[in-house]
Structure formats: structure tokens, C-alpha cells
Amino acid sequence: MGEEAEDPQKLKKIAAAAYDYENDPRWADYWSNILIPPHMGSRSDVVDHFKRKFYHRYIDPGLVVEPMTTSSSSQSARSSAPQSSSSSTSNNQPRQRNSGAASRTSGTSTTPTPTPTSSATSPRWNRQTIQFSVNAWVLVVAVLAIFPLIPTNLSNRAYRLAFAGTACSSLYSLYALYGKPSAWNLQALQVWLQSVIMAKDFLYFIYCLTFVTSHLSLKFALIPVICRGLEHVAKFLRRNFNTSSLYRKFLEEACVWVESNTTTLSILSSQAEIGLGLLLVVSLFSWQRNILQTFMYWQLLKLMYHAPATAGYHQSMWATIGRHVNPLVQRYAPFMHTPISSIQRWWLR
Fold first, then answer.
1. Topology in the membrane (predicted)?
2. Given a cut of 90, is residue 317 above it in pLDDT?
3. Do 122 and 112 touch, CB atoms closer than 8 A?
């Protein structure tokens, strides 16, 4: 009976171990928010434990995740303790024979042992703090850009600064997750680009470059930037300030809403991105047309349609547009069927 009861959990553990975590963008985001020392993050048993917790949270809540054992780490700590004590006593013996003051100084020199742990965890905290600071700054300048009472000169400058800040934040995330190219030559850059081209941060980086370098000012384009900044800021505040009275009084409700409605924000971003593509097509018939920007942006939309991080939202939006537009084309403009079919073949290629 006990073996039969354990069989479902064994199957779930096998499924969790076989899951493709590297191609799930949620895993990279989940792992980047786990605060553990780097020497523990390199251990396979620690990584496997957090993979099972990720699988329990996002894939199969029925998986039972056992607490991580610390026997190996405690044993290594206990084994290193006698060695350090013996070495310290052997070094302190001649000093004690010299004077009592020397023994006191040697005793105080061995006290600050926790400093390596704090310095080991500080890079992860610094990375998150930098991301939070940049995204909070992006939210501030984005609000200045869309606020109607702001002077035009200041509004346009804030508009470009919002895109520049998001581009820097996305590039920093790519560096933190994928590192830099192994060498600065064409072949190494091509290999690195192939590994990051489907990442959501890379898509946002290209998105921001498309608008920060354009003379066309579309405040509508700030919607995806604001949605991304809200997600990052709310996540950081909930992880690090959930015990603050100021956070609980003014920010907790908003942060909880943002984290519980990330799907809604992603749908809103995809709608804005597709709407921008249609606006750029319309702008080709005005004096503000930019053929190169329109072509590059539609290439980006095609990439968003196929990238795993954004494909679900974009494909659903395009399917909704097709259900409304195709009957109108067949009824009022049947001659457009051939060029639309050609465009669809290029789009799905």
C-alpha cells in the first residue's frame, strides 16, 4: 500500500526532472529572484530543489517538495571548524608566551567570520537593486512624458529617456542571464545572438531602440514600457519591503494587483505593440513617414509572433483581428486576397 501511494509522487518527480526548464522564460526569472550565496547556487542538489519548487508552483501543484537537507553543508562546516580552531591555537601559543595583549589581539582578529557570506550575497542584491532603480526611474519619466500639462520640450525628452532606460535595463538583464559574447568577432556575436534572440528582454531592447532613434513621437508606444516597469517594481517591492509599514499602507494593494494581473498587462502590451505597427503603416501616407523604421518594426512584430515569451499573446491578438477583417475583405475587397495571402506566408515563415 505504501509503494502504491508513493508511485504518483515518483512519477511527478520524474516529470519534474525531465521538464525543459531552460526553454521556459519563467524559470530564468524565477531563478534570478532566489537569494542564495553563489557557492550554493553552483550545487546541483540546490538547483534541483528549486527546480522542483518551480515545477510545483507553475506546472503541477500536486508535486510534494521536500525541504532541502543541510546535512552536507553542516558536516563540511563541522569538519572545517576543528581545522580552523587547531590552526588558530597553534598560531596563538607563541603569542601567549610573549604577552597577554598579543593573545587578545589574536582573539579579536578571528571574530569577523560572517563577512564572506555577506559579500557573497551582495552581488545578487546589487543586481536587483539596480534593476529596481532603473525601472522606477523609467516609470517616473514615462509618466512625465504622457502627462498633458508638461511642456512639450520636457515631455519629448522624458519620452526618449523612458525608452533609453528600458533599453539599458533589458541589456543589463541579458548580460546577467546570458553573459557577454565569448569573443568580439562576427562568429562569436552570431552565436550569442542566436542564444538571446528569443528572450523577452532582447525583444524589449530592440523595441526601445526602434523608437528612441526615431523622430516620430508616439506616446502610445510607452504602454509596453510602463507595463514592464510596473511588473519589475512591484515584484521588487513585494520581495523586499513587505514588512514596511509605509509599503503596507500605500503600495501593497497596488503591487498585489500588478502581480496578480501580469497576464492582463501582457495582453495590453501585445495590443499596443500590434496597434503601433498599424499606426506606422498609416504614417507612411503622411509627411512623418519612416520606411526603414516601419520595416524594422514589422520584423520585430514577426519575431514577437514566434518568440515563446510573447507568442501566445500576439497569436491570440492576430487571430482576433483575422476573425473581424477576413469577412470584410472577402465581401468588399476580394482583390486583396492574393496580396494578403502572400503576406501571411512571409509572416508564418
1. Multi-pass membrane protein
2. yes
3. no
